[in-house]
Specification:
10 helices; elongated
């Protein structure tokens, strides 16, 4: 009877919590990264890019190699403050907007300069690219006597019809990939638990009968 009384007063047996499977970290990272990436793609305004192309043409006492070299030079100076200030009126935007949205590219094999402009408005992107290309052409004409190279328009920038920025689906996939990678790294660096630490056995709670018996022995 004393044994039954002790069993009733031991209290409930504690069950250790079940550990989550290892792949849950990766799944949580993929889900969180996909949600964040998709949300960024939805909230970010779309951007449009237009490109104008210029060609360096050699003049008298010049050759193709000279034209190629000056095309590289003009590609570097296209985003300089003096050129952007000259293009500001035609573009209809401040110089700071031109500095942030205009990029140039050149080819090591062809004497061509690409002037690209990015803006949330398609018409503004085309106007910015054409304005900077026109300002660069005027700079090249002013220096033609010394360079013996003429910079002429090849194609003007036209109003883009589709955004150049990534869609919400693409940003969501990128975010999901990044989140999955972080989850996998967290899975690799997490501390390992031994078999004894995974399921600790709770100590039994002594009942009143056990305490009384200990007092009687004293």
């Amino acid at each position: 009877m004393t044994e039954n009384h002790a069993r009733r007063h031991r209290g409930p047996r504690l069950t250790p919590p079940r550990a989550l499977p290892p792949w849950s970290l990766v799944a949580a990272g993929v889900l969180a990264g996909g949600l964040l990436g998709g949300g960024y793609g939805v909230l970010r305004p779309a951007e449009y890019t237009a490109t104008s192309y210029l060609v360096a043409v050699p003049g008298e006492r010049s050759d193709a190699a000279g034209a190629l070299g000056f095309a590289q030079v003009y590609g570097r100076i296209a985003t300089q403050p003096a050129v952007l200030a000259d293009a500001r009126a035609a573009a209809g935007v401040p110089v700071a907007a031109l500095r942030a949205g205009v990029r140039t590219a050149t080819s090591p094999d062809a004497p061509m300069v690409a002037v690209s402009a990015t803006s949330p408005r398609p018409a503004e992107a085309a106007a910015m690219a054409n304005a900077v290309a026109g300002a660069l052409t005027r700079r090249a004409d002013a220096a033609r006597a010394g360079t013996r190279v003429t910079l002429v328009p090849f194609t003007r920038a036209v109003r883009p019809t589709e955004p150049s920025s990534a869609s919400a689906g693409v940003t969501g996939l990128v975010g999901a990939a990044g989140g999955g990678l972080l989850g996998a790294l967290a899975l690799l660096v997490r501390p390992r638990r031994g078999p004894e630490a995974e399921a600790p056995r709770p100590a039994p709670v002594p009942g009143p009968a056990v305490v009384d018996g200990a007092r009687g022995r004293r």
